[in-house]
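User: Quick one: structure for sequence A, then sequence B.

Assistant: Sequence A:
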Amino acid sequence: MPYFLYDVPLKVLAASFVLIAIAVMFISLRLLKPLVRRLAGPDSDDFNESVRTATTGFSLFYGLLLGLLTVAAYQNNAHVKEAILNEATTLSALYSDMTSYPEPIRSDMQGMLRDYVLFTVDKDWPAHRRGEFLNGGFNRANAMRQRLAKFDPATDSERILHGQVMGAFGTFTAARQQRLTGVITTIPAVLWYAVLVGAAIHLLLLVMLHMPPRRQFVLGTINASFLGVVLFVIVALDNPLRGESGLSPAPLQLLWQRVMVWDERPPPG
């Protein structure tokens, strides 16, 4: 699916899909209806029955394809959303664990964690909306890993705590990587070709039915509108982080507002 669609406002995109589907159906009625009448002949009952038989089999397979793609797009979206939540949760735990570390690593790590969260929300997320990710997040995560690696625990309790923190940092890294895959997660182009060709065949079969034009237009509008809505939903869910419908950094924003922002304030005079 062309990426420029994700730059279109969500409401405009939804309306566009519905209107385009209706327009294609209307144009097909105007151009193909006379040809269909010639093919059907004076007695159209047998022709209509043949079209209904073909439509039944096609609708089954095409509906199954749309259903599977919708579920797949939703699952991809849910996996990235879970990764964002896990990243924020792990960062919160790391930030809290740093209070048990001695200085100067405590202040260093908490400052680096705050910087990472701000960079991710203010810089990385706008890049995600454009289908990109920046190197700054990787550089910050790597700097935190190196700072933790330099710490030499002096007591047994510090060794236990440091082992737990390093394990939590690995969980954070995995969640961050899973979140970044949401930038490039998408339905393969070959499946989109099947969906678009199937939509054209669906409207064609509807146009081929021999019935009064006004009734056919009403039924065609209903079918085309629903088809446009389904295609819009798949497109909106296809790229979990891209465009207006992309997932928000709400868990990271909540972490900053509820936990980290207080440490940014200067002590009272």
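Sequence B:
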Amino acid sequence: MNFAKQVTSNRDKGISVVHYYKTDDGQSKDDQGKYEKFAIDHKQMLRVGAVNCDDFPAICNKEGIESFPTYRVYPPVPVPTIDVDVAGGLDTDKLKKSCYRHIGSRVIELTENNYETFRTDNPNKPKMLLFTDKKSTPVVYKALSTHFDQTLEFGIVRPSEESLIKKFKVKDFPVFYLLQNVDSKPLKYDGDSFLFSDLFEFINIYSETFVFGEAKENVESAAARPWNSAEMPYITQQSGNDVCFMRDGTLCVIYIVPNKESSSPKVIDELKFVQDNFSRKISRGIQFAFSRLDASAEPGLA
């Protein structure tokens, strides 16, 4: 009665994990403790469930389960399901990796240049800030940004952004702040745990309390797409569609350089001059989009 709700319907943006077993399959009883801990550690972040195929053979037949136990990850559609190899016993690290790789992210990298845009765009929409000394974005933070995609915006600040570190008086990492609105005083998360469930509860209170009117609309902050305001933006996998590839009626002029350091200021000035002269003066005809491509950073595109 609940398989579709817990698994199938969850695949619009969530991830489910299902343990298919039989009472006498010889392994599932040994795996039980590890799997239950995995479920507790990922409470609210993942849907974690189990199906006894002795009791519910119709589900297992429909899902094509042929060996027991089977641990199946259901990522967001259209990504196909993944069966995790558990020969020799359940390895929860393997299970985590299979899930984490499919967690999306709406986290914006914040710098001194785009922080004010992030703060003031959608002024009634609460903002979360994570100050971290990690090079990557924590998977828990990514998952939160996806879950609250309609009600909050998420930014991340690295130690190199000294002005923002000083502004928020950050002395240790990680630190989470919530900005109620554009004029509010930052509210610090004082919990000891950085589990998804604890951060979820902290955020959930404020996403329900402080989201008014236009903030409920899913309007993306301009800080997420800084290339749209750049005079001669770099084309990347992330910016390519906006800068060039998906712009109807536009011809792209791309200055390809071995690396950013070799981008000649003289050539850039010439390109800007040409761009100004070829800018469209009326609302019809061909439009030109001028950009740069760093071949060392984007070898595939180059």
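The chain has three domains: 3-100, 107-223, 225-294. The mean pLDDT is 87.

User: Thanks, that's what I needed.
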